[in-house]
Amino acid sequence: MNIYTRRRLVNVFNLGASVLTTAFGLFWLTWLLWTLVSHGLQWIHPSLFTESTPPPGSAGGLANAIIGSVMLTGAGVAVGAPVGVLAGTYLSEFGRRSRMVPVIRFVNDILLSAPSIIIGVFIYEVAVVTMGHFSGWAGALALALIVVPVVVRTTEDMLRLVPDTLREAAAALGAPRWRVVVVIVYRASIAGILTGILLAVARISGETAPLLFTALNNQFWTTNMNQPMANLPVVIFQFAMSPYEDWQHLAWAGALLITFTILVLNIIARAVLHGRKAGQ
């Protein structure tokens, strides 16, 4: 067998293996989505968005859990996103020559890959035990800790894509360092930074483990962040594990709702990033 034939066989083998493994992954993903849609779509109705979670055997919806999830996610992003953007800015703009930068990146990577249940246990010890009760603020703090490393990584990557010649041109015109960052660098990378924040929102929207240790759940309607709050991930977990069929139906509907929301956020993020690349 000559070298040309051997290379063609190796290429065909690698191409075939790649296609088969891709088809294998897509098969399970399609099966999962089809199962979710077939079981959850029939339980999507208007009362799902207007009524609170019911006791077993009664009609109801997921309104309190939806509002709770929106509040927890919003508070988590409001706390975590600014911290992540500022930390990513330091790593990219002000700390390039600092010996602490590699250490900060290493710690950020560890936090990025840390199991969310570990973060939940940490916030439980720091906030829930200290306050003496579960609360929405503790849940938001746990979600914020998940947001920070995602936003730090994407912000740093997006800022580093901005050519240094832009910074040098602005500095040559007499602009101070902070003004170069705010007016030039942020403006050139705003789409990428927003994409990172959207990806962080998608990441925390379905987190269950940290909320089990912090916000827990609430059967009743409340917008008081000092109390335990209903939220979709924990409601889905508890209802899916229950022996009551009506609760299981709501769990399917909630799971479909979260999946659709995350899908929309990812599509928006990719559309924004694609528009950014097309404009360059």
3D architecture notes:
With 280 residues, the protein is mainly α. The protein contains 10 helices and no strands. Helix 2 packs parallel to helix 5 and helix 4 packs across helix 5. The longest helix has 38 residues. The radius of gyration is 23 Å and the shape is globular. It starts with a helix and ends with a helix.
Percent strand equals under 5%
Biggest sheet record: none
Rounded mean pLDDT score? 91
* C-alpha termini separation: 48 Å
Give the helix proportion (percent range).
Answer: over 70%
Number of strands: 0
Structural class: mainly alpha
Whole-angstrom Rg: 23 Å
Q: List the helices and strands in order.
A: HHHHHHHHHH
- What is the approximate shape? globular
Poorly predicted sequence stretches spanning 5 or more consecutive residues: none
Task: Determine the number of helices (DSSP H or I, runs of at least 4 residues).
Answer: 10
